[in-house]
Amino acid sequence: MIIQTERFQVRRISDKDIDCLLAIYQDSKNMKFIPNSAPNWNKEELSKKYERINCDYENGFGIFAVELIEGEIIGEAGLFNSFNDLNHLELGYIIDQRYWRKGYGKEICESLIEYGFKKLRLSKLTARMYKENVASVKISERCGMSLVNEGKSDDGKEYCVYEIEQNEFNTPQ
Questions:
Q1: d(CA 49, CA 72)
Q2: Which residue ranges make up each domain of the chain?
Q3: Which strand ranges, in their side-by-side order, compose the sheet holding 158-165?
């Protein structure tokens, strides 16, 4: 486990989590804002995705299960080496739509930011999202991240990029 809050833990994904995570991936509403992710995943494809992702659990980053204290998997979250710089990671998460609007997104984002800066001693964190994903835009802003770039992705959708640097962490919001 890398993070524990009063409501959930963020921990390594195990084989027993795949069915729960697959159900999240197969829900089109959950995947609406995830680039290149149609909801037609199967168990083998999802398992291969988790194997493929550049996880370095020994150094504390990768993709993790988000599990409520009661034991239910509600999504995944991670810090990714998208920039080939171990001091600058990308933050991302997918939450099952049954748990939207309950504060989990903000809590996950805050937890990952704190973990990244305090435990991993990162210099910068980045979050990228489609502009139409208003909830994630608001969460990024509420977590102290600043808009640093906007544009259009290859699929024609508008996106935005938010970042927070170590020296901005713990600044009063």
A1: 21
A2: 3-124
A3: 3-4, 8-12, 62-68, 73-80, 88-95, 124-130, 158-165, 146-152
Summarize pLDDT for 50-102 with one digit per residue, the tens. Answer: 887 767 777 888 899 999 999 999 999 999 999 999 999 999 999 999 999 99
DSSP percent split of the chain into helix, strand, coil, nearest 5: 35, 30, 35
Note whether 63 and 69 are within 8 A (CB).
no
Measured at the CA of 135, the angle between CA 114 and CA 117, to 5 degrees, comes to 10
According to DSSP, residue 166 is labeled G
CATH architecture for the domain at 3-124: 3-Layer(aba) Sandwich (3.40)
